[in-house]
Amino acid sequence: MRNFEFGKRVLDLSETQVMGILNVTPDSFSDGGSLYANSKVDLDTVIAKAEMMVADGASIIDVGGESTRPGAKAVSLGEEIDRVLPVVERIGREIDVVVSVDTSSPEVMVEAGKLGAGLINDVRALGREGAIEAVIETGLPACLMHMQGSPASMQENPEYDDVLDEVTSFFKHRIAQCEAAGINKNRLILDPGFGFGKTVGHNLRLMNNLRPLAVSGLPLLIGTSRKSMIGTVLGRSVDQRLAGSLATVALSVMQGASIMRVHDVKETVDVVRMTQAVMMETIENNEGG
Ligand code: 8Y4
User: Fold this and answer.
1) Could you read off the pLDDT of 232-241 as tens digits, one per residue?
2) How many helices (H) and strands (E) does the chain have?
3) Tally of structural domains, the chain
4) How far apart are CA 114 and CA 260, in angstroms?
5) If pLDDT is split at 50, 70 and 90, which confidence band does 37 have?
6) Does residue 289 sit within a domain?
7) Which of 78-92, 148-162, 228-242, 250-264 has the lowest mean pLDDT?
8) Active site includes 185?
9) C-alpha 96 to ligand 1 mean position (Å)
10) What is the SS3 assignment for 90-118?
11) Which range of residues forms the domain containing residue 194?
């Protein structure tokens, strides 16, 4: 058992947990913006999708209102608040699940915390002014993701001497900064940031070397679902990347990843369970066979 507190809920991170992606961005290309009518969030549709993911076995729902795909346009603070907070509030009230808020804005972090969020997922690793203080104010855990550059330009020319060394040393520095500011290390989760300022080669090298990235033994969160590294290796469009995504799930579970951030929850949960059964050499259900 490795119990980890997410606000008022606790998850055992010695078993890989599945985080379902709930985009509340009108331009989110993976669902074609279909969760929206007239660019306005249809709350009931969003909540129904969250309920489905939880029924499929997600223990965390990641709610995000800012598109961080390369070249996406910035979202104003007001817009992000209007999109994200109502969703955080309703899931918190209606569904038994950890709500993760995908944001870099201190204001959103603080308000989401008040509404019952259980995790701050920041692709900028609390790099914005006031973000570390905001996390302290919420008392919540935070996921620190590595990114080279900024979303606008990160894929222009990613370069590393050694991507493993650079991501590892980034984690060490950021953990030290968070600790110095008063965030206990045991509240941090690390994420190498697949696709965030990395070539396919960099992404494959990270995927093949997850264990050494778990600096100080902290939990790892992995987000590869439908990403372009899979598209490039397999030559598949974004809606044809399920099998490739699931291969990275099995590989990540084998290397001890604690949380998988995915679009396809049901299929991912099966791969997680099957991989863990092999790792433990035990069956987890009682249906025989
Ligand atoms: C298809 C669908 C292709 C989505 C690409 C994408 C991560 C993350 C994102 C991640 C953590 C994305 C918010 C990018 N990726 N947070 N967020 N880790 N912690 N692109 O890897 O999903 S958004």
Assistant:
1) 999 999 999 9
2) 9, 12
3) 1
4) 25
5) very low
6) no
7) 148-162
8) no
9) 24
10) HHHHHCCCEEEEECCCHHHHHHHHHCCCC
11) 3-280
